[in-house]
């Protein structure tokens, strides 16, 4: 049921007539987003009943409190036009777009943190922080992502987490509008002395805030957040001139060389096991800022989708070789420190039988890898196709990954041999979790054509295999489309896997219902307040 005229007017009185809409054309723009076809079987999903754009925390509180009184569902989002961000679990729901809250409120060099609002993208903070000698980190999805979304709400599996951590560990404090409309401050947020620390050792409210993957807007709205920043030993990204050859696409522009105080090596190993054990040794020694096993994506794309597909077909990557190649990036505040760190990396390389292939260690390739792994290429998730991952959610020790990945490859093999997918493998990667203290997370990326019935059917069949707790992947099975991008009423991730993992879902439901007693925060990408009772 849509909003009544009185309800719309009440919301309009809060934000002003220019910051709320029910225009059908605008509503369609929020429900025709990336990923719909594979998820819902259609190019669109349920549109919101209205979109509101608050300009302050006071307006957000007023909106949320009104939703509680009127029984209206709400979901906040910032810089994420994908189905997880814009899908609502019923027709009587509004989207709260946070684009007016777009300020960097503070960068504190002494305590190495920054306070930001929800619509500040990583590239904006990165550019501002790097001019003061600090670095934010590179999220896998690219620099256009919201700092707060990554830190507090949605995944944050940073490529650079060997150096910059990840998974919410960069949250020092935040201002959190709960689903009731009340404000909760975490850490030293909004207190004398600044936002410089979290809420101390031991149990932490930051665990309720997000855990491994985040609530995707399902338990309130983060209006301010203090995030950690890390030393940066080069100029700001915007101060470098990017070069491209005549006739090359704009997206091919790149650095000419790796900046001083940074060094890139691309190491090849005789097999995956040697590569992974070398990666763990380098990571746990904390001598590198990035270790990227099997992650050879330089990220450079052609100008259009047709050109990119032709390039992929003409020169497909040697996936078997890439699976045992590892870019390593080290940094240092002085040439002496940089030299020491690189020598330590070379010692680990030699111990595990690795070598440097000249073809993959040219200045151009090194600069490409640095730009992709540390900064961004400016082109991410732009292609009109779709992709899915294998079970990236299977985090674990190096030994676990080495035993588990062959099972995934075997499950994928029939689809690749049949040619059902547009591109049977876009690459394999094992991203370290912290400095491998928590192991790593791996996944096989597959490109599909959502408009090809054969490709779409194959993708869904593969999803059925990895979603089945009794299938070949067993309890480690579920796929997440790239970043915990499930819709609970379709995949039932918590309901399927909760009993396997000590009924963790029951505790999460208790937390969710404690925070949202009136059930107005959209739960579609979080956890339902209760499971539907099965017939019979």
CATH architecture of the largest domain: 2-Layer Sandwich
Distance between the termini: 29 Å
Instruction: State the helix count.
Output: 19
Number of strands: 19
Give the mean pLDDT. 86
> Which of globular, elongated, flat, extended, rod-shaped describes the shape?
globular
Beta-strand content estimate:
15-25%
CATH topology of the largest domain: Uridine Diphospho-n-acetylenolpyruvylglucosamine Reductase, domain 3
Domains (count) = 4
Low-confidence stretches: none
Tell me the strand order in the biggest sheet.
5-6-10-8-9
Quaternary: single chain
Pairing-aware structural class of the strands and helices? alpha+beta
**Sheet bearing the most strands, described?**
5 strands, antiparallel
| CATH first level of the largest domain | Alpha Beta
Helix content: 25-40%
Instruction: Specify Rg, calculated over alpha carbons.
Output: 23 Å
